Amino acid sequence: LRYLTAGESHGPELTAIVEGLPANLALEEHEINRDLARRQQGYGRGGRMQIETDQARILSGVRWGRTLGSPVTLSIRNRDWENWGRKMSPAADDFVEGIAITHPRPGHADLSGVIKYRQQDARNILERSSARETAARVAVGALCKKLLAELGVSVLGYVTEIGGVVADSVPEDYRERFALSEESPCRTFDGQAEQRMIEAIDRAREQGDSLGGVVEVAVLGAPVGLGSYVQWDRRLDGRLAWAMMSIQAFKGVEIGLGFEAARRPGSQVHDEIYYQADAFIRNTNRAGGLEGGMSNGAPIVVRGAMKPIPTLYRPLQTVDFRSKEAFAAVVERSDVCAVPAAAVVAEAVVAIEMAQALLEKFGGDAVEEVQQNLQAYRDYVKGV
Ligand code: EPS
């Protein structure tokens, strides 16, 4: 399974091509749109989300509600494009004088991008580095979640922290965490923390500031033995970490105990193994479902840290990259906090990696074949 996305934030559309999905997977546009709508929600979003109502169109690879095994092309229109016209036109004749952005935002791709790509306008950088691109990845993730559902695997994303406010009333059950979070404007499970998160976001908005946070993704139902220790790039923990870190504005990733594992002695880190009722069991899951680069059958738990969005309404100090004079950074319309949306994006990128790992081990050209291969393996594992 592989995919590419394309599209500028204020261009006509975002496009994704997904190759390697098996045939006969039931797929409808509304199933993708459900996740696109979830990504658009969340307390702390800015004006752009009032303009967009993200909808995916399936342009290839699906006929009469089932995948064909051929590449699936998805398109998501940017409604805001209509407001940009000549300013985002591909035609040289449409050039508009005097709109170049030359005051790069600290923390954004602006400055490194203009140097790297030899540009004189930071818009040529920010259009593609924008987190608008995550809409395309959420659409791809929705396809992968459809496949995972056929294989008995679910991927659940939610928020555990915003702006230093921690959701510390944590239900044991991941499904309960998820169900509560689905009802929450901060996409979190702790109602009291949610109230304080909302207050923190309101305060940041008043102060022209922005807030980051932490999201968690739990994968339930993954069989033991996905990924491998035999080569570095086959380690599932490494691939999940790469996928999470590749989300715009993410600066940290943890699996299971994560950095806390470095602080504890081994006796309080590893999950002891017991054999009960014909099965290997653990009473803890500090490893986050991954040992030796492989899934161990327990829930896979990955967390990602998102930094505050670099576009501040009370801008930080910067330098005009043409004149070299000191200026305040450019103020683009933006969100105060996009952590609730990032939980949906994290869910998508984890789903993509999980689908890839399952297809590597149980791959087939049609969904039925993948299901049979997986069932045979599950039967084997039961007998061990
Ligand atoms: C973003 C800036 C804002 C966000 C955008 C990410 O866009 P605009 O400049 O059009 O207001 O709204 O996020 C999305 C458009 C989205 O769909 O999530 C940025 O600079 O990264």
UniProtKB/TrEMBL annotation:
Keywords: Amino-acid biosynthesis, Aromatic amino acid biosynthesis, FAD, Flavoprotein, FMN, Lyase, NADP
Name of the protein: Chorismate synthase
Annotated NADP(+) binding sites: R39, R45
InterPro entries: Chorismate_synth, Chorismate_synth_AroC_sf, Chorismate_synthase_CS
Molecular function GO labels: chorismate synthase activity; FMN binding
Subunit details: Homotetramer.
Family the entry assigns: Belongs to the chorismate synthase family.
Cofactor(s), by name: FMNH2
CDD domains: Chorismate_synthase (cd07304)
Manner of cofactor binding, per the entry note: Reduced FMN (FMNH(2)).
Matches recorded under SUPFAM superfamilies: Chorismate synthase, AroC
Biological role: This reaction introduces a second double bond into the aromatic ring system.
One Pfam family, short name: Chorismate_synt
Record GO biological process: amino acid biosynthetic process; aromatic amino acid family biosynthetic process; chorismate biosynthetic process
Entry's EC annotation: 4.2.3.5
Pathway membership: Metabolic intermediate biosynthesis; chorismate biosynthesis; chorismate from D-erythrose 4-phosphate and phosphoenolpyruvate: step 7/7
UniProt-annotated binding residues for FMN: R128, S129, S130, Q248, A249, G292, K307, P308, I309, P310, T311, R333
UniProt entry tagged with the keyword Kinase: no
Source organism: Syntrophotalea acetylenica (Pelobacter acetylenicus)
Reaction(s) catalysed (UniProt annotation): 5-O-(1-carboxyvinyl)-3-phosphoshikimate = chorismate + phosphate
One GO cellular component term: cytosol
